[in-house]
Amino acid sequence: MLTSQRKALILDRLRRDGQVIAKALADDLGLSEDTIRRDLREMAAEKLLKRVHGGALPLSPELPDFTARQAVSSDAKRRLGAYAANMIRPGQTVFLDGGTTNAEITRQLPKDLAVTIVTHSPTIAGELEHHPLAEVILIGGKLYKHSMVATGAVAMAAIASIRADIFFLGVTAIHPARGFSTGDFEEAAIKRHIAQCSAETYVLTTAEKLDAASPCQILPLGSISGLIVPSDVPDESLAPYRDTDMPIFLA
Hints:
The protein is an alpha/beta fold. The chain folds into two domains: 3-57, Arc Repressor Mutant, subunit A (Orthogonal Bundle), CATH 1.10.10.10; 66-250, Rossmann fold (3-Layer(aba) Sandwich). It has helices spanning 3-17, 22-29, 33-45, 66-70, 75-87, 100-108, 122-127, 153-160, 185-196, 235-242, and strands at residues 20-21, 50-52, 55-57, 93-96, 115-119, 134-138, 142-144, 149-151, 164-169, 173-175, 179-182, 198-204, 216-219, 226-229, 248-250. It has a seven-stranded parallel beta sheet with strand order 6-5-4-9-12-14-15, sandwiched between helices. A three-stranded antiparallel beta sheet has the order 1-3-2. The radius of gyration is 20 Å and the shape is elongated. It comes from Rhizobium hainanense.
């Protein structure tokens, strides 16, 4: 088998399975594991995949630090924020994850909406300064600065005492096989815990996070109440997700 053929097959496996295990692929093809590992190293250098111990993952979007991301407020994120804000009803308890897309939810909330917002993100809490009828509960803990959210045992214990009506979950990558993921183990555990303590969980995402995988899985696709995407995402990009019967909403 030619090198180009092996690499094409590796990309196909990544799209289908969300990962490549070097030993398993070598066994399937009747090749040495060293050959597959060399292919993976070359493909990682070409920015075609992400090398991990024992194999490879699809590339996840490269995220700048939080301050840089905060300065970018795209039209797509504003539409996502407006759609999510419109889902919130007076009297509900809503848990907002950190992130710049979820910050748009707070900016789109009516100032006269009586609602309880729970968050482990001080930046999200700060966005609600001028919402006089919104009760804000800020969860504390060890600050994960990249996402500006609290993590750790203190945060986990506080979250366990809350039952939210809706959780808007932030992720860095979404893949048909690997589900929702992020780059930090502790942050993934917190997100998963919040979802378990919430009646419904929704994910807002822009197109670049689709068909990507980060190292730490949060939840499988079928475990959330719905995915909210911009209305201009091509149908073919959404097809693998519609096949899972996960509700998809267009903003």
